């Protein structure tokens, strides 16, 4: 080791200093590190990845629309981040376990989430609806960074069970500042846990540009903890898929944790409550629009003669179908009865909750309607 | 006097504090260009610069911990925690450092830090965005804890909190951010009621309701409704929930002999428990009935669509009034049967 | 039955839990080779291996956060926080994750995590080593909170906590680690009193003392001393401080009509506030006097040489007994004068 | 930036991969990075540094003795760490501000701490006695890592005041795992704050060897945050002095934070309550004894003819004198009266505390002795 260590150059807006396989124009370029990991991906597979991204984008649009129409309380758009969400998830096995944040709708979708899983929590019907055991996913996390430790703990469990699964956790550039994320790297490195860290650096934490969080590339932190890392173009689904395959394989084979920084962009507002015009230059948005994760795949496939109108129509159909299901899930939601607020506070009988239920039920009984019917 | 929202009053309070004392600075997530997710700091970075209105990295322990260092150097940091549910990562710095450093240093280091927290529910928010963590801070010796219920107090008490040499946790009911009221921006701070004083916001003779924050309005509404039954309710806005102004409280309770306490936070070991215990200790011989608490249930904050079944609303307060008045109420049959409240 | 210290009983409880269920594992700082700074985990790493008795990096949020992940995978982690004052860095993971995940997932993910905390003062320790943070957890819905007062409970309740599908914060009074008592290591867990049940440790007819942890012994000593004056004191060891076994509590209070609550933690919004409020709500018509709290002052834990002036000792409990018995007591003149408790 | 980053080699016990100016045998070796920073240090200065280390070691021995005799409740020995504590502190200006941990007795000493400052808190008379304004030091911190954020905040204050001071914070290898320490690096880098991080890697956090905390050199973390770092021999006072001068100058001149990992060893137990034989190999202790920070300076000076018996006697005298003062401070301590527990809970009048004082005073009055005297 050289005893004097100096930081890598400031990244600031150096969004091109990344590993990449598909350029913004859809040109397939070589990368000796990444190439081997996607050697098997043929046009058919790439088309399906494109379809998933298109469906995800449509879910996102539908979420925004439903929120605007008052059907959802809030929505955290993921448009622009389809490649990292779909690409990395597809780099995992189904029995690997993911710990996403609120914005990883695409991760939940790619794991098999139901339409209701996308909307019921944002509608305020339930904190979470997804089935962790079926999807092999933790609940999307709102406490910034907290889920990274859960992923490490889960990976420690995998080690103890002796299986060859891995866990993967998703978090943002803003999250990289939280103590929990750094503790997660410490624990992961200390125990050599099979966990993959995926930092979706979408350039913003609400209004704060990434330079408030990081004076050097976020991917550069992991090696300091003993964790190999890669910085990839987060709008390039091939690069994202390859990076996850590399990272998952690293973890799966007992070599310990790995870290991916996916450089991407949040094309929409932070949430539907946010007004990005207060802090973002429209020109920046335009620059990123030119780096769209979907168009570059389409361009590449078209150039290969692998993307025709029939396929486009089929994608359109998938997206429309999903949108209809998402809408139906939102509109068809049935709010739970009042006493359900006491459900699942504890897993075992609890004298305190039992008393509260008795008391609140009696209280609700006082509101019987003309027919003596009581909603509780 | 100007008519303005609580959000605007807070903004004016911060502006004034920044203008009056150049050792005051504001720190938090998204408080600069964006002006905060609730726009409480709107325009302040433009006016006072990025050195005094500081967008910080996304790390609450870091925000409070660096505020401690700034206080060591003689600054008076005002910290914004973006939402109530995000104060917990800073809990160690608040409890072990902010609250204790003045004590630990034998008074040699002051911690004039104000921790602003957009607070509580009723706005249909997502998970972790509707928490009522005030009891944690009330139980923490070394802190002062206040909660505001109207624009004038928002403006004045915030300035008092910032001017205090003690750390103050300052709760802002987000449900009231857009509620308007008269604010006198020019009244001298020295003439204002001290930060620790409670206020009788409605006089009455039968029942005393003790509350704070957004529940003050709910209590007032209940008092108005109860008037129709001929029940006269006194409502006290505690304003400071640590310390509590027991002079005002006991004077009222000795008059009415009946007490209802209401807050959104869970009941168990909440601020209401302290109020009931203290009132009972101080006024036992004046009490006609056991004080009753009307609070959030002892559950994690429920999903938005169900929050109305969690929040102590007007009807639940009136039911509690019936209880302290020994009238038929929701628990009438049940209390007789067994141990249930 | 074997005579052993509480430290040893806890060690045996952990050993038994590890032996009985291979999903149980223990994590914490220095719990492996060293056996913990209090030797509670002595020998366990040698016996069960480093995969099940895990020395973790020095980061409490990391310890609890990884325990959450292990619980997601179906493990039952037992976490050791080295000292009471070091639980605060883990507060966010405890309050927002451990306490809420079962609720947030609609019961789909269980959090059978036991958080062991060597607890409270009286051992002449340095700063931050004598904290009584139990009220923070009692106020947090979704957690169960227990405190043990003797070796047998230490052994049994610890095993019950680990076997519970709910998260349990488990307080171990460090002052009693070396106190000995009889422990039956072989009694079937199924026969033991449930974790949530309180125990009347001494019967009496004049005053009920409600307490838990190391204060149980202090209360018993006070009861013995009071006997000389002809005062008959019932002492209840709550064992579970959330939820509280109000059946046992109210039965006693209805008998005695007079209540003293004692704990080491600061009074304001402490567990005692909840106990006084609940007892008043449930037993108002049986009360002969206002319940009295005997607690630590509302101050940060003082330096070791002064802790004896902070801790609620036998004399302070007897003074409180005088208060609830309406006998002359330290506040006699003062209460009359003004609002002071 | 290379997009695939790999960790530096495992350090484990690689305690020799450090920058060094004085070998364990007292040989002065060259280091092109460090040399310029101590070019002015002549024999006379080095002798004084030696004296300070010797006095510190004696304070430490006295602390242990006083604890054994029941005069102190606890003591956290620093023997073995004299070079990093004295050397780095001497690399600062007096008006720089330090934030030490409980083990940095040498930092407090070098800042001018009084004998009572070393013992009264461990005796349990007060949480802290030192004068922050005079010593330019925060209270020695027991909550692991918390002080690092205070140092960063203080440095942010320096920036706002426009002075050329710096702040410096001390913490251990164990502390490097805490989220706070990592958040401190994030904030420091983000704001370019003039703060120096000093990690005294003494190989243990109580019983846990450093490899539990770190799978790679701790100094290697800082660059990932954009902070230059140096890994030095923490038992070499010249290297420690030089490193701090480098770091402080870096910070002072507006270049932002700097990080030093000082590789050293805790020769004693964690505290007087600890039994290191349970987890430490005696042979390891012996290996480190051969790297003693004092003997190497003495050997070097002797070889130069700059250390004679007269100087040795003078050092002995300084140490004896300090030990006597420390002992006197402990034995002469007067415990504060009962009501003092309420002092300084708040800086301003507080109705709650005022009531408590009235009540507790009345209570204490009940214990009047035969003469009616009351202690309160
Ligand atoms: C502990 C915590 N602090 C603050 C917040 C409020 N908050 C929600 S999202 C967000 C920004 C997150 O940015 P980043 O990690 O980059 O993720 P992104 O939203 O860009 O996907 C903030 C500050 C929170 N949810 N949790
Ligand atoms: C937050 C917190 N957790 C745990 C402890 C208990 N503790 C005191 S010292 C220590 C080890 C510290 O190791 P290191 O940081 O290497 O410093 P050293 O003692 O070696 O100087 C531990 C775990 C503490 N004081 N604070
Ligand atoms: Mg982001
Ligand atoms: Mg160490």
Automatic annotation (TrEMBL), chains A, D:
SUPFAM superfamilies, per database record: Thiamin diphosphate-binding fold (THDP-binding) (SSF52518)
Catalytic activity: N(6)-[(R)-lipoyl]-L-lysyl-[protein] + 3-methyl-2-oxobutanoate + H(+) = N(6)-[(R)-S(8)-2-methylpropanoyldihydrolipoyl]-L-lysyl-[protein] + CO2
E.C. numbers: 1.2.4.4
The Dehydrogenase E1 component domain, residue ranges: 52-321
Alphabetical keyword list: Oxidoreductase, Thiamine pyrophosphate
Cofactor(s) in the UniProt record: thiamine diphosphate
InterPro entries in alphabetical order: Alpha-ketoacid_DH_E1_comp, DH_E1, THDP-binding
Enzyme class: oxidoreductase
Claim: Oxidoreductase is one of the keywords in the record: yes
Record bears the keyword Oxidoreductase: yes
Function: The branched-chain alpha-keto dehydrogenase complex catalyzes the overall conversion of alpha-keto acids to acyl-CoA and CO(2). It contains multiple copies of three enzymatic components: branched-chain alpha-keto acid decarboxylase (E1), lipoamide acyltransferase (E2) and lipoamide dehydrogenase (E3).
Family: Belongs to the BCKDHA family.
Name recorded for this polypeptide: 2-oxoisovalerate dehydrogenase subunit alpha
Automatic annotation (TrEMBL), chains B, C:
PANTHER family given in the database record: PYRUVATE DEHYDROGENASE E1 COMPONENT BETA SUBUNIT, PYRUVATE DEHYDROGENASE E1 COMPONENT SUBUNIT BETA
Highest taxon above the source species: Bacteria
Catalytic EC class: oxidoreductase
Cofactor(s), by name: thiamine diphosphate
Keyword check for Membrane: no
Protein's recorded name: Alpha-ketoacid dehydrogenase subunit beta
Keywords associated with the record: Oxidoreductase, Thiamine pyrophosphate
EC number: 1.2.4.-
Coiled-coil region list: none
Pfam families: Transket_pyr, Transketolase_C
Gene3D superfamilies the UniProt entry points to: 3.40.50.920, 3.40.50.970
InterPro entries per record: THDP-binding, Transketo_C/PFOR_II, Transketolase-like_Pyr-bd, Transketolase_C
Chain ranges of the Transketolase-like pyrimidine-binding domain: 4-179
GO MF annotations in UniProt: oxidoreductase activity
């Amino acid at each position: 080791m050289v005893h004097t260590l100096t930081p890598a150059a400031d990244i600031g807006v150096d969004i091109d200093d990344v590993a990449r396989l598909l350029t913004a124009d859809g040109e397939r370029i070589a990368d000796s590190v990444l190439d081997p990991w996607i050697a098997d991906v043929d046009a058919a597979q790439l088309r399906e990845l494109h379809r998933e991204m298109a469906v995800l984008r449509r879910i996102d649009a539908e979420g925004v629309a439903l929120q605007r129409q008052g059907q959802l309380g809030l929505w955290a758009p993921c448009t622009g981040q389809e490649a990292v969400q779909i690409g990395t998830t597809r780099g995992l096995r189904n029995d690997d376990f993911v710990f996403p944040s609120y914005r990883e709708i695409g991760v939940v979708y790619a794991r098999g989430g139901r339409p209701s899983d996308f909307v019921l929590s944002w509608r305020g019907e339930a904190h979470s609806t997804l089935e962790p055991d079926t999807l092999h996913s933790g609940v999307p996390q709102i406490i910034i960074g907290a889920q990274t430790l859960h992923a490490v703990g889960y990976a420690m469990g995998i080690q103890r069970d002796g299986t060859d699964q891995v866990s993967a956790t998703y978090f943002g550039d803003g999250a990289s500042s939280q103590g929990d994320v750094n503790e997660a790297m410490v624990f992961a490195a200390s125990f050599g846990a099979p966990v993959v860290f995926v930092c979706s650096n979408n350039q913003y934490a609400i209004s704060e540009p990434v330079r408030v969080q990081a004076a050097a590339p976020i991917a550069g932190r992991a090696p300091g903890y003993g964790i190999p890392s890669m910085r990839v173009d987060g709008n390039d689904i091939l690069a994202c898929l390859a990076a996850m395959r590399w990272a998952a394989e690293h973890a799966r084979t007992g070599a310990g944790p790995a870290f991916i920084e996916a450089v991407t962009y949040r094309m929409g507002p932070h949430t539907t409550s946010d007004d990005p015009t207060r802090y973002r230059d429209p020109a920046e948005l335009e620059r990123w629009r030119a780096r769209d994760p979907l168009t570059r795949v389409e361009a590449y496939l078209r150039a290969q003669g692998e993307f025709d109108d029939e396929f486009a129509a089929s994608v359109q159909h998938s997206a429309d179908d999903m949108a209809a299901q998402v809408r139906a899930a939102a509109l068809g939601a049935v709010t739970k009865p009042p006493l359900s607020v006491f459900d699942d506070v504890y897993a075992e009988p609890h004298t305190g909750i039992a008393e509260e239920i008795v008391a609140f039920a009696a209280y609700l009984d006082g509101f019987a309607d003309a027919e003596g019917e009581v909603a509780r | 006097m100007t008519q303005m929202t609580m959000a605007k009053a807070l903004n004016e309070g911060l502006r004034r504090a920044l203008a009056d004392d150049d050792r005051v600075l504001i720190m938090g997530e998204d408080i600069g260009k964006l002006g905060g997710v609730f726009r409480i700091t709107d325009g302040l970075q433009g006016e006072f610069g990025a050195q005094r209105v500081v967008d910080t990295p996304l790390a609450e322990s870091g925000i409070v911990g660096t505020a401690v260092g700034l206080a060591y150097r003689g600054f008076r940091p005002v910290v914004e925690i973006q939402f109530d549910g995000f104060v917990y990562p800073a809990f160690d710095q608040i409890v072990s450092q902010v609250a204790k450093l003045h004590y630990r240093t034998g008074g040699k280091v002051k911690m004039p830090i104000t921790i602003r927290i957009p607070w509580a529910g009723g706005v249909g928010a997502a998970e972790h965005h509707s928490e009522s963590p005030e009891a944690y801070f009330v139980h923490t010796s070394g802190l002062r804890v206040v909660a505001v219920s109207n624009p004038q107090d928002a403006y004045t008490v915030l300035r008092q909190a910032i001017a205090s040499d003690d750390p103050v946790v300052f709760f802002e009911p987000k449900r009231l951010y857009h509620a308007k009221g008269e604010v006198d921006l020019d009244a001298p701070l020295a003439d204002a009621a001290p930060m620790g004083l409670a206020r009788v916001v409605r006089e009455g003779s039968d029942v005393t309701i003790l509350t704070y924050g957004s529940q003050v309005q709910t209590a007032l509404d209940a008092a108005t409704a109860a008037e129709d039954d001929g029940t006269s309710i006194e409502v006290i806005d505690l304003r400071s929930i640590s310390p509590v102004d027991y002079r005002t409280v006991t004077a009222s309770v000795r008059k009415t002999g009946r007490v209802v306490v209401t807050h959104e936070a869970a009941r168990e070991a909440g601020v209401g428990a302290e109020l009931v215990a203290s009132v009972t200790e101080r006024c036992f011989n004046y009490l006609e009935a056991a004080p009753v608490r009307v609070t959030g249930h002892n559950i994690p904050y429920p999903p938005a669509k169900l929050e109305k079944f969690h929040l102590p609303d007007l009807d639940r307060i009136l039911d509690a009034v019936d209880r302290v008045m020994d009238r038929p109420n929701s628990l009438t049959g049940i209390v007789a049967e067994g141990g249930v409240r």
